[in-house]
Specification:
The protein is α/β, with parallel strands linked by helices. The protein contains 13 helices and 17 strands. Strand 11, helix 10 (261-270) and strand 12 form a beta-alpha-beta unit.
């Protein structure tokens, strides 16, 4: 059995950090990182590194090999996900490593894609390359949950962000939602947006708040996610911020199959991507929404906005991560509950979730939960 050294763990941890930089940018592909490392007399030397390029362009291993050049011969490649073994829009990465003369390949986890799923490892081993699999595997499974869920369950990973007042409300009757989170919490939220493929809100939130749903951290505007609106009857106004900016940052509107064709035609002409799905007279099922998004390549979805929508995804057991931010604000007796027909305290205590983080964003507090076993 191949030996996993401390050096292997350190370089894989570095590859993981590099891979996280591409989250939200390379879907439907996973964000993979590769490091090419040579063992020299004075220690281990990094001679090439690469991350997954946008779809249709080079994968991480090829980018790293191109940077390493001839120094890749006899070197070790650390890669967060099993190298692909099939011809798609690019040739197999396993073949590129073989042709470059790599001596050893250390892999974080096997690829859940049925077209790969161990075939990349076999191709490397058949070529006489030493292969080590499962270095920091727990961390890699967390990193690639969205990609894995899309491969296995045909849905993206779902992250729900909720902000509530100290007394458990998100707004005030007659006023709608009120500002609850402080500036540090908002920076964190924008950071979350930059790491997700798409962000989703219901039509009620879109109509009441007229949000932008973009990432507005300095230097990260280009990392804004696809903005998805669940709008069964296609009520989104043409003068909304979402429609007016849909050429710069795409907007997908998921509506009922029987939504008004004239409204849809006008929205489509403005640049909105229309997605028609089966719906009941009152709602679109969360499972239908996720299937439609997965079919279009979305692997990581952030839910932000709408007590009714949040409740529907929780009730359908389709939330994988949950971050609850509690602001330093009291709303009072006329408050609007954070969830439509669920008790948030019960959700937080649900044994299917485990707390993985907690702390403060300035004067706000937060708790981060993750589905057990994920």
């Amino acid at each position: 059995m191949p030996v996993i050294s401390i050096i292997d763990k350190r370089f894989m941890a570095a590859a993981e950090r590099l891979a996280r930089r591409g989250l939200g940018q390379v879907w439907p592909n996973p964000s993979v990182a590769a490091l090419i490392v040579r063992k020299e007399d004075h220690g281990h030397v990094l001679v090439g590194r690469g991350v997954t390029s946008r779809p249709g362009m080079a994968h991480a291993e090829v980018n790293a090999l191109n940077q390493a050049g001839s120094k890749a011969e006899g070197a070790t490649c650390y890669v967060t996900l099993e190298p692909c073994s099939h011809y798609g829009r690019t040739p197999p990465c396993a073949l590129a490593l073989i042709e470059a003369g790599a001596k050893r390949v250390v892999i974080g986890m096997l690829d859940p894609n049925p077209r790969v799923a161990g075939r990349g490892v076999k191709m490397l081993e058949d070529a006489g390359i030493e292969v080590v699999v499962g270095v920091r595997e727990t961390e890699m499974k967390a990193l690639y949950r969205g990609f894995t869920l899309r491969q296995i369950k045909q849905r993206p990973q779902v992250f729900l962000k909720l902000a509530k007042s100290r007394d458990g409300y998100i707004g005030r009757a007659g006023e709608g939602q009120v500002k609850i989170s402080g500036p540090l919490s908002m920076r964190k939220v924008h950071g979350f947006r930059a790491e997700y493929d798409a962000i989703l809100v219901g039509s009620g939130t879109a109509l009441a708040d007229d949000p932008q749903l973009t990432c507005r951290l300095p230097g990260l505007a280009q990392r804004s996610p696809i903005r998805v609106i669940i709008d069964r009857c296609a009520r989104l106004p043409l003068d909304s911020k979402l429609v007016r900016t849909c050429i710069d940052v795409p907007v997908w509107l998921i509506c009922s199959n029987d939504a008004d064709p004239e409204k849809l035609e006008v929205l489509a002409a403005a640049g909105v991507n229309i997605i028609r799905v089966p719906a009941s007279e009152v709602s679109i099922a969360p499972s239908v929404i996720l299937s439609a998004l997965a079919t279009r390549g979305i692997t990581r979805l952030m839910l932000e906005g709408g007590a009714r929508m949040a409740s529907s995804f929780l009730s359908a057991d389709l939330v994988d991560d949950l971050c609850v931010v509690t602001g330093d604000l009291l709303i009072g007796d006329d408050g609007i509950s954070a969830l439509h027909d669920l008790d948030l305290a019960d959700v937080i205590k649900d044994p299917k979730f485990e707390q993985v983080d907690a702390g403060n964003f300035g004067r706000d507090s937060f708790v981060y939960l993750r589905r057990r076993g994920a």
